[in-house]
Design brief:
Blueprint: H1 2-31, H2 36-51, E1 53-58, E2 67-71, H3 77-83, E3 89-93, H4 102-108, E4 112-114, H5 122-134, E5 138-142, H6 162-169, E6 176-188, E7 191-192, H7 209-219, E8 222-228, E9 232-234, H8 240-260, E10 267-268
Parallel strand pairs: 1-8, 2-5, 2-6, 3-4, 3-5
Antiparallel strand pairs: 1-10, 6-7, 6-8, 6-9
Helix pairs in contact: 1-2, 1-7, 2-3, 5-6
């Protein structure tokens, strides 16, 4: 019964904040009277509260631009967790653009939609990412290409790192910075998550979104850690695959450390 009450309250909270903040976001985008990022961050923070998440941030998003933030990917909640702390745009699979409501909300987030399975379009998609980088956006790339179970980092794909190369080759920038970011779901109700419990937070493969979201909202009280690594400089002539391997190693090392020793410090929300 308590779980059902919590679910109803959480859904009502998300709906109310969305109804209130979306018009403000649309007005901000058109009028430029205030930063649209401010509204987005409020919306994500409201979602984090509804989920019952406690977010612990270690390190900072670098202020160097152009910037690609490369992260591991565990769940649909990763976006709202990161968005509650950082003013960033996301790269998402093109199917998301067609999702009811969520696709529209993703557009308000200035999400870049890509078709991972169509290689002939990869150049155009990388050019769009490069253009956004040149405009000063910090772009988050989930380089595994799918979600994991939260216990390990899957091999990174180097293809979309091509956006950094294109941004340089087209003269949009003389260098691009790449910053590793690790997201780790570490505790539930204050107790460290084990391998067996972590799938509660993970949204893996073709799992249905609605049942997973309902289970997560019903449970609540999950601690999430964001660990920002040191940004590296990607310059003309640098090896894209080597950069991918380096960032992947950094993300994997931070995840293993977070799971082995969950921390409750850092900036918290």
């Amino acid at each position: 019964m308590i779980g059902r009450i919590r679910l109803v309250v959480a859904l009502g909270w998300v709906a109310a904040s969305t109804v209130f903040l979306v018009p403000l976001q649309l007005f901000a985008m058109k009028s430029k009277l205030w930063s649209e990022w401010r509204v987005l961050r409020l919306w994500h923070r409201s979602n984090v509260r509804a989920l019952g998440f406690r977010v612990h941030q270690h390190g900072e998003l670098t202020n160097m631009r152009p910037l690609v933030v490369v992260a591991n990917h565990i769940s649909w909640t990763d976006i709202t967790v990161i968005g509650s702390r950082c003013d960033v745009s996301f790269i998402a699979k093109s199917e998301m653009a067609r999702w009811p409501v969520l696709g529209w909300l993703a557009r308000l987030q200035r999400t870049i939609f890509i078709e991972r399975d169509r290689k002939r379009r990869s150049g155009a998609q990388a050019s769009e990412i490069a253009r956004r980088l040149a405009d000063g956006d910090a772009v988050v790339l989930f380089a595994e290409g799918t979600t994991s179970d939260g216990n390990a980092v899957l091999p990174f794909k180097s293809a979309l790192f091509g956006a950094a190369t294109i941004a340089i080759s087209e003269g949009a920038a003389d260098r691009v910075y790449i910053q590793p970011l690790t997201i780790a779901y570490t505790r539930i109700h204050g107790i460290p998550m084990g391998r067996r419990h972590r799938p509660l937070a993970a949204w893996i493969g073709d799992a249905e979104l609605a049942p997973h979201a309902a289970a997560l909202l019903t449970e609540g009280a999950v601690d999430v850690e964001l660990h920002f690594g040191e940004a590296i400089e990607f310059s003309p002539g640098d090896d894209r695959k080597a950069a991918t391997r380096r960032v992947e190693a950094d993300v994997r090392a931070m995840l293993l450390a977070a799971l082995a020793n969950p921390r409750s410090g850092g900036k918290r929300s």
